[in-house]
Amino acid sequence: MDTNIFFRQATLRICGSLDIDKALFQCLDFLKQHIPADGIYINIFQPKRKAIRFIARADETESTAMDTVVPITDEMCAALESPHRPRIRIINDITEDPTTSRVAGSVFKGRISILLMRLNINGKHLGVVGLYAHGLNRFSSEHGALLKLLHKPFALATAFALRQLNLRKTNTQLSQENQYLREQLSGGSRDGAIIGSRGGLQQVMMRVAQVAGLSNTVLLLGETGVGKEVIANAIHNSSPRATGPFIKVNCGAIPDSLIDSELFGHEKGAFTGASSTKKGVFEQADGGTLFLDEIGELPLSAQVRLLRVLQSRRFVRVGGTESRQVDIRIISATHRSLEDMVSEGSFRQDLWFRLNVFPVTIPPLRKRSQDIPELVSWFISKTSRRLGLAGLPNIPKAEMDRLISYTWPGNVRELENCVERAMILAEHNELKFDWLSPQLHHAPIPVPEEQPAGSDCLTMEEAMRQHIQSVLQKTGGKVHGPNGAARILDINPSTLRSRMKKLGITS
Ligand SMILES: Nc1ncnc2c1ncn2[C@@H]1O[C@H](COP(=O)(O)OP(=O)(O)OP(=O)(O)O)[C@@H](O)[C@H]1O
């Protein structure tokens, strides 16, 4: 046989497909004319993982891309890494070779003979290509010599396939991360559910539909907890900017001295502590939506700069000179009456005019009590999923009536918290809301425990202390983890710990 022709024909097949399993299939079809093989496979040596990973195999009838990992011992790892291991090995009965019987034996059943070629790239052991045949003593040194001719093409094809696999894996990881980050950015009601869109929020949703496709500024008005952020999200998600970022900034939570840097970013060294360049929310939201929550809390000095940017869509980073332009939609929200603030002189009239182009008022929950049953079942299933509870609890009719007749000063957020609390306290799988009575209309958070002597109302701090304590009691003092208090209260465990410390609570 002319070995040049053999090499050329085999190489053409090894390089005949970008999919390594298909290339193996074509190659086997050719090799069978010269070597008595029933199948072929490639596996990769993963010393860090102490494992061998099968990536592809082919037999007479089919080719399969694989991802089968077989763990190996430290001794096996060391033996495989040895530079003295021969390039070609013939194992005419795999039961006699511990490494091969462990590795190949976990993929191929029955007594087989194996002809192995170690694949090296740049002096590093990459893995092996193996030919197998049913029965004992099927391979000879002549077969080994023929296979050895194909070292380079097999090594290159394997290295290429490996790179492709790793890229695919990185790609999947990145797209999962991307999706996760997008969800984080879109915040709030992650699942996009807007309960009441056909009930009490019908008018609001009509306004959303009118405005979503455009790029104009929207002002969301409504009491705290009515769902302004949820609606801002809905506008973003149904707009042509949906694939762009949704950046939320709470104007009331930024210290005055940092407002400019937070909104417009800063250059390195712009002020003490500006150790690196930072993009502000305007830049971060480029191509998407910027949600300015609690806009009424913005100090007058910052209002004037915001107005300038809204007019020109241009800004300069703190400490910078370059004027930057962004393509963003602004949605702002407030629970305050900006009109009253304008008359009091605490909000600029010209900014109010700018923001008030398309106002959308979200009604308080007490004015759309028809949505309460649906909101309650939504929060029950959401909380059950989050807490990993089995089965959904029941709500007696009298308890649902209690929820419907309550006035909900904290709106949907308060209802959500109440449902969660009732689920934690539930006995016999039944939800009760007996701490909600018409007299307690203005209690911010329901507190079932006795109140301190001589006081009808709890301070926020006391209410918080009692709530945290009751959750800790339910979790048996557990703070971290899936059934821990932090998860139930939906806050970071270290934040909870420091709050507990401040409130003098021990777990
Ligand atoms: N229609 C709704 N459907 C489902 N969940 C809702 C709805 N409205 C509000 N929520 C939930 O209620 C909570 C409060 O909503 P959101 O943060 O949007 O209120 P907000 O008006 O922006 O509050 P704040 O004025 O305090 O910023 C969130 O957990 C949100 O997911």
How would you characterize this protein structure?
- This is Transcriptional regulator containing GAF, AAA-type ATPase, and DNA-binding Fis domains.
- 42% of the residues lie in helices and 17% in strands.
- The protein is of the alpha/beta class and 507 residues long.
- It folds into 4 domains: 3-166, GAF domain (Beta-Lactamase), CATH 3.30.450; 187-361, Rossmann fold (3-Layer(aba) Sandwich); 365-446, Helicase, Ruva Protein, domain 3 (Orthogonal Bundle); 449-507, Arc Repressor Mutant, subunit A (Orthogonal Bundle), CATH 1.10.10.
- A 6-stranded antiparallel beta sheet has the order 3-2-1-6-5-4. The protein has a 5-stranded parallel beta sheet with strand order 8-11-14-7-15. A two-stranded antiparallel sheet has the order 9-10.
- The longest helix is centred in the first third of the chain and has 36 residues, at 151-186.
- It is elongated.
- The structure holds adenosine-5'-triphosphate.
- Adenosine-5'-triphosphate is lined by residues 188-189, 193-196, 201, 222, 224-230, 293, 335, 378, 412-413, 416.
Please specify the SSE layout and strand pairing.
Elements: H1 3-14, H2 20-31, E1 39-46, E2 51-59, E3 63-71, H3 74-81, E4 88-91, H4 98-103, E5 112-121, E6 124-134, H5 141-148, H6 151-186, H7 202-212, E7 218-221, H8 228-237, E8 246-250, H9 259-264, E9 265-266, E10 278-279, H10 281-284, E11 289-293, H11 300-312, E12 314-316, E13 323-325, E14 329-334, H12 338-344, H13 349-355, E15 359-361, H14 372-387, H15 397-405, H16 411-425, H17 460-474, H18 485-489, H19 493-503
Parallel strand pairs: 7-14, 7-15, 8-11, 11-14
Antiparallel strand pairs: 1-2, 1-6, 2-3, 4-5, 5-6, 9-10, 12-13
Helix pairs in contact: 1-2, 7-8, 14-16
Adenosine-5'-triphosphate binds next to helix 8 and helix 16.
GO biological process, one term: regulation of DNA-templated transcription
Domain Sigma-54 factor interaction: 194-424
Keywords: Activator, ATP-binding, DNA-binding, Nucleotide-binding, Transcription, Transcription regulation
